[in-house]
Design brief:
Blueprint: H1 26-32, E1 39-43, E2 48-49, H2 54-63, E3 69-73, E4 92-96, H3 102-106, H4 132-143, E5 149-152, H5 153-157, E6 163-165, E7 170-172, H6 175-179, E8 183-185, H7 190-201, E9 215-219, E10 227-230, H8 231-234, H9 250-255, E11 280-283, H10 287-292, H11 294-306, E12 315-320, E13 323-327, H12 336-343, E14 350-351, H13 361-366, E15 369-371, E16 373-374, H14 385-389, E17 394-395, H15 398-411, E18 418-419, E19 421-423, E20 433-434, H16 437-442, E21 457-458, H17 462-472, E22 479-480, H18 488-491, H19 495-504, E23 509-515, H20 519-525, H21 530-546, E24 552-559, H22 566-578, E25 587-588, H23 596-603, H24 624-634, H25 642-651, H26 685-688, H27 693-699
Parallel strand pairs: 1-3, 1-4, 4-5, 5-8, 10-11, 11-12, 15-19, 18-22, 23-24, 24-25
Antiparallel strand pairs: 2-14, 6-7, 8-9, 9-13, 12-13, 16-17, 20-21
């Protein structure tokens, strides 16, 4: 893998004393003696100076490099006044939607408006606009036409290329084009954003910064010294244009008219010598093509994911009208020393005093937690972690984690001795890695654990066990809990880890995520079979019992995921009842931008395999009726769902599951006052009169 530029360049300006908080007002700037900010970060979240909040990390990383950074948090987007509050920055504006995608933050999977926002004081909803990055960028441009705009964060990261947008049910352009920003940084972006700042400081023009990994920018034309590779040569999508006349001369082929939606014909190369690889780019189907052809969209999605390993990824280019959207390869992962440096910057670990102590639910949830790693090699198709943080695990040192726990213990108000989580995207991938650097650099597998754990993966949990033991032995630490999801197919590789988890780090309940039990949905999710769950449960239950602790696994499941039939959800509901699970909250699949499962949802094709016109079709539960039915199966015990479930069971030929015995899934009666939403009266009255109150008490959930 290539070496990366240092996270903290040697030519940085001397860093002064860190600010107690990064300034959010002119008064804050005056108190620091600043007349101007170098960089201003605009964010959709309230400003919490904690390493779990992206704007705080980026701000503190830049501050450590001698730069003056201001924060504009949750500005009023109806005008430019809030965007002008700190004045014009010397270098650039950084615009982010925040820790969550603004559309996911605002809408449920059924496209209903949420009433709250965990990243806003008081949990108040409506404090950020839809498509936050676009709106904020437009207001910045209105206020300061000449200042460069760099967009980033998960909202921009997942929209860096033409993407399916669930909320409008269309394919939208790269957010870089719609936001009219100068550059997009994807991933966690500490490395890129620092290099951009210092190059602008050296008076480079942002339009000339085209060589940074993890960045996306727009070109008007292709550079002459690059070799283009047609994406169909990387992974053929099937016929996408009229067949070429095999008897045509080379000159006739070059002069042939371009297919509809293309703007030029390029001579592509199937094989590129290694000496030219660094100057080769894969041409993706254009925005116009993927927006009208779902199969081409699935093909483009597959190419994007194939070219996601920093060790072998090539640049990608996608035409948008008369613009070329250019995606450089992913950034080189951070080293352990760099991770330590980032997480040990002088965060205040509190919300800015301007909020006057108002509760910010997201902060309350994580203020006593510690991030020990980044990235995920699970590759779950519905998840955005891999697309954003990458597959290579980036871990902190044990000493750094211990120092952060001590900082929480000694300095964070309200700490009672309980660390709420030691984790990350996954609880138990700390320091797990490929056994061979050469294999890792060449690998294009979307997952290291599907369909089984790769033989090249080092699954040694000993470093994590050592970290747990050292953390809980610290003076003043009463308990260290694990709240991040445990990847149980990895955990069973280390029974000692499961024992450690069950005996010392579970507070009665442990959440895990089988997501489904049927092979149909599991194969499209890239999740392990239910056998791995049973092996983990057997170990967890045994170790809990030996420790004299009554503890339970809380499994999470997804409804309406691509590949899921009504029959799959019925089997899951029967399994849930048999095992005594009653889910209070359930989630329906939400097609997030760029996810592989979203490409399945949109195209009905399986981009986990080569995509062609006649390639594998995927069953996709679409429409509010079927999505609600699948959610109803997960909440089979809720009387409001019984009418729709009875109707579905009769339609599916499974009326034998309707009745009032333990072997039945739903009762044959409807309790008074528990009709489904919008229903009047009850068609089940005759059934209800057949049961005594005592009988109802026995069978009612």
């Amino acid at each position: 893998m290539q070496t990366a530029a240092p996270l903290f360049p040697a030519d940085r300006r001397a860093a002064g004393a860190p600010a107690p908080f990064l300034p959010v007002s002119r008064a804050d700037m005056d108190s620091l003696g600043w007349d101007r900010c170098d960089i201003i970060i605009v964010t959709g979240d309230a400003y919490v100076d904690h390493p779990s909040f992206g704007m705080a990390i980026i701000g503190r990383v830049l501050e450590a490099q001698g730069l003056r950074v201001g924060i504009i948090a949750q500005p009023d987007w109806h005008g430019t006044a809030d965007f002008e509050a700190l004045g014009e920055p010397r270098l650039f504006f950084g615009v982010t939607g925040g820790n969550m995608d603004s559309m996911v933050n605002r809408y449920t999977s059924d496209r209903r408006v949420r009433s709250d926002d965990a990243y806003t004081p008081g949990g108040q909803g409506g404090k950020r606009p839809d498509r936050c990055v676009i709106v904020y960028s437009q207001r910045v441009r209105e206020a300061y036409k000449q200042v460069p705009i760099v967009i980033g964060g998960i909202e921009a990261s997942l929209r860096r290329i033409a993407h399916f947008d669930y909320w409008s049910d269309t394919v939208r352009r790269s957010v870089l084009v719609d936001a009219k920003a100068d550059m997009l940084v994807y991933g966690n972006a500490e490395r890129q954003i620092g290099q951009i700042a210092h190059r602008l400081q050296r008076r480079e023009r942002i339009s000339d910064i085209t060589d940074l990994r993890g960045t996306v920018f727009v070109r008007r034309a292709m550079p002459q010294d690059w070799t283009e590779i047609d994406s169909s040569d990387v992974d053929a999508p099937g016929p996408i244009a009229p067949p070429v006349n095999p008897y045509a001369t080379e000159e006739e082929r070059r002069s042939a008219p371009a297919p509809a939606g293309d703007h030029k014909v390029v001579r592509f190369y199937r094989q590129v010598p290694n000496t030219q690889r660094e100057r080769s780019v894969i041409r993706m189907p254009s925005f116009e093509q993927v927006s009208r052809d779902a199969v081409l969209y699935a093909h483009a999605s597959r190419i994007l994911h194939l070219e996601s390993n920093p060790g072998n990824a090539r640049a990608l280019v996608q035409r948008h009208g008369n613009l070329e959207v250019w995606l450089n390869p992913p950034p080189i992962p951070l080293t352990t020393a760099e991770m330590d440096a980032i997480y040990e910057l002088p965060y205040a670990r509190r919300a800015h005093p301007a909020y006057a102590g108002a509760k910010i639910p997201a902060y309350d949830m994580i203020r006593f937690s510690v991030a020990i790693q980044r990235g995920c090699f699970g590759g779950c198709t519905f998840c955005s972690i891999t697309e954003h943080e990458g597959r290579i695990i980036q871990s902190r040192s044990e000493n750094s984690v211990i120092r952060e726990i001590e900082t929480i213990r000694d300095h964070v108000p309200g700490f009672t001795g309980v660390i709420s989580d030691l984790g990350g995207p996954t609880a138990n991938m700390y320091r797990l890695h490929c056994k061979s650097a050469a294999v890792e650099s060449a690998c294009r597998r979307p997952s290291c654990v599907f369909p089984g754990v790769c033989s090249n993966l080092d699954t040694n949990h000993a470093p994590l066990i050592d970290l747990y033991r050292r953390a809980r032995s610290l003076k003043g630490i009463k308990k260290v809990l694990i709240a991040s999801g445990v990847r149980y197919d990895l955990a069973v590789e280390s029974p000692e880890y499961v024992q450690e988890l069950a005996v010392h780090h579970t507070g009665g309940y442990l959440k895990i995520a089988p997501e489904a039990i049927g092979e149909g949905p599991l194969s499209k999710m890239m999740k392990p079979g239910v056998g791995a769950y049973y092996r983990f449960k057997e170990l967890f239950d045994r170790f809990s019992k030996e420790a004299g602790k009554e503890q339970y696994l809380i499994p999470y499941f997804i409804a309406a995921h691509p590949g899921t039939r009504d029959q799959d959800m019925l089997e899951l509901a029967v399994w849930l009842k048999k095992n005594g699970f009653r889910a209070d909250q359930v989630q329906a699949f939400l097609p997030s931008p760029m996810a592989t499962a979203t490409a399945m949802y949109h195209s009905g094709k399986n981009p986990l395999r080569r995509v062609a016109r006649n390639s594998e079709e995927v069953v996709v539960p679409k429409g509010i009726k079927v999505r609600r039915l699948h959610k109803a199966f997960l909440r089979y015990h809720d009387p409001e769902n019984w009418p729709v479930l009875r109707e579905a069971l009769r339609r599916m030929g499974r009326a034998d599951l309707i009745g009032n015995g333990k072997q039945h899934l739903v009762p044959a009666y409807q309790p008074i006052g528990r009709n489904p939403r919008g229903a009047r009266g009850t068609a089940s009255l005759p059934f209800r009169t057949q049961h005594t109150r005592a009988q109802k008490r026995r069978i009612r959930p």
